[in-house]
Design a protein that fits this description.
It holds the Pfam family Amidohydro_2. InterPro entries: Amidohydro-rel (IPR006680), Metal_Hydrolase (IPR032466), Metallo-dep_Lactonases (IPR052350). This is Thioesterase. Belongs to the metallo-dependent hydrolases superfamily. This protein has 293 residues and is of the alpha/beta class. It has one domain: Metal-dependent hydrolases (TIM Barrel, Alpha-Beta Barrel), CATH 3.20.20. It contains ten helices and eight strands. The chain has an eight-stranded parallel beta sheet with strand order 1-2-3-4-5-6-7-8. Strand 2, helix 3 and strand 3 form a beta-alpha-beta unit. Helix 6 runs parallel beside helix 7 and helix 7 runs parallel beside helix 8. The longest helix has 15 residues. The chain is globular and about 50 Å long.
């Protein structure tokens, strides 16, 4: 039985709460394709079913694009789930760092003893090139500066072509931890695409305050291929080292691509040549330390 802390997962109930991407008709498809099958409740009991057969040591809930008008409400909901089910262990809240009320939102989120950081997907271009992204905005940077005093870190989900902007932020705020989501999003699996992704990720790896989650590495069309993901997993670990990498399921979103078991058995197979101590760090200890579980 594989022991693990799942460093990235979600719960939601679109019948009871508002999630624009789940509730609004005509919302663009997910990067994996049609996501209509996700427009249903996914609750701790469902997650327990999907993780059956694993020794789940802990889990990290990541904001699920809940109603952006009420980010604190999402953490109240998570608090109720924790009371009812014991899951998740800790959580990452939603905060719009560029908005005038960012400081007040962050202060309220920090009052939940299980909240460890925040995620907001900064403004990004749909392809390499173009105007600078949201991490260059003065208002965004002002909000970002509020994280460290409140004991919060930043979860970064952005296309790899904006990672040079994130590296600048990491260097300018060396005491604020950044955790990259979804392996830096290597969406283009061509040789040229993977080389560009690796080069961008290497700049982030040079910042000691940056860690990374190997999660959400399915492909457009809903595929989770061991042969394709092996290179991604191993190159991330090569760049960041065993001590700064964690595995996450991105469930239930990655249920569009594969079962929970397929994903974690795949991770286990890819790193089977690592030492027992290294595997323990990748599957449990690093997440335990980074998220203070």
């Amino acid at each position: 039985m594989l022991s693990l802390i799942d460093a990235h997962h979600h719960f939601w109930d679109p019948r009871a709460h508002y999630y624009p991407w789940l509730n609004d008709a005509g919302h663009p498809p997910h990067r994996y394709g049609d996501h209509s099958s996700l427009k249903r409740p996914y609750l701790p009991a469902d997650y327990r079913r999907d993780t059956a057969g694993f020794d789940l040591v802990g889990s990290v809930y990541v904001e699920a694009e809940w109603d952006p008008r009420d980010p604190v409400g999402e953490m109240r909901y998570v608090a109720s789930l924790r009371e009812q089910s014991g899951l998740p262990s800790v959580a990452i809240g939603q905060a719009w760092l560029h908005q005038p009320d960012a400081a007040a939102t962050l202060e309220q989120l920090a009052q939940f003893d299980f909240v460890r950081g925040v995620r907001q997907k900064p403004r990004a271009n749909p392809a390499p090139g173009g105007a600078p992204g949201g991490m260059t905005d003065g208002a965004w940077l002002k909000g970002y500066a509020q994280l460290l005093p409140l004991g919060l870190h930043y979860e970064l989900q952005t296309p790899w072509w904006h990672l040079h902007e994130a590296a600048r932020v990491a260097r300018d705020f060396p005491d604020t931890r950044i955790v990259i989501n979804h392996a830096g999003m290597p969406s283009d699996r061509s040789e040229a695409g993977l080389k560009a992704w690796r080069a961008a990720l290497a700049e982030m790896a040079g910042c000691p305050n940056v860690a990374i989650k190997i999660s959400g590495i399915g492909e457009a069309g809903g595929h989770w291929r061991l042969d394709a993901n092996r290179r991604v997993v191993l190159e991330v670990i090569e760049l960041f080292g065993v001590d700064r990498c964690m595995f996450g399921s991105n469930y239930p979103v990655d249920g569009l691509c594969a079962s929970f078991r397929t994903i974690f058995d795949g991770f286990a197979q890819i790193v089977q040549g690592f030492s027992e101590g290294e595997r323990s760090k990748l599957f449990v200890e690093n997440a335990q330390r980074v998220y203070a579980i």
